[in-house]
Amino acid sequence: MEVNGDFGAAGEHAQNVTYRAQVHAKGTAEEIHALMEYTDTVAEIQNTLRAGIPVKLVDIEVVNI
Asked: Do residues 20 and 5 make contact, with C-beta atoms less than 8 angstroms apart?
C-alpha cells in the first residue's frame, strides 16, 4: 500500500489523497481488480477519510501466487 497526499499549513486537511495497492493472490487479474474495487467502497479507513476529503484508488498491481 502506498498513500500520497498534499498537506498545507498546520491544521489544514490533506488534499488530493490517492493510494495504490499491490495484491498477492490467486485468481485472474480481472477477479482481483473487481475484488479490490469492491473493497475500496466498503473499507473502514478509506470511508472514514472520505467523510472529510476525497480518497481515490489510482492503481492496483496484481501479483499472482
From this structure: no
DSSP 8-state symbol, 36: H
Spans of all domains in the chain: 2-64
Q: Which long-range contacts (CB under 8 A, 24 or more apart) does 47-51 make?
A: 49/17
- Based on DSSP, count helices (H) and strands (E) in the chain, helices before strands: 2, 3
**Distance of alpha carbon 6 from alpha carbon 34, whole angstroms:** 28
Task: Chunk the chain into consecutive blocks of 10 residues (it has 65) and report each block's average pLDDT, rounded to whole numbers.
Answer: 90 88 93 93 83 87 90
Cell output for 6: 498534499
Neighbour count for residue 26 (Cβ, 10 Å):
8
pTM score, whole prediction: 0.70
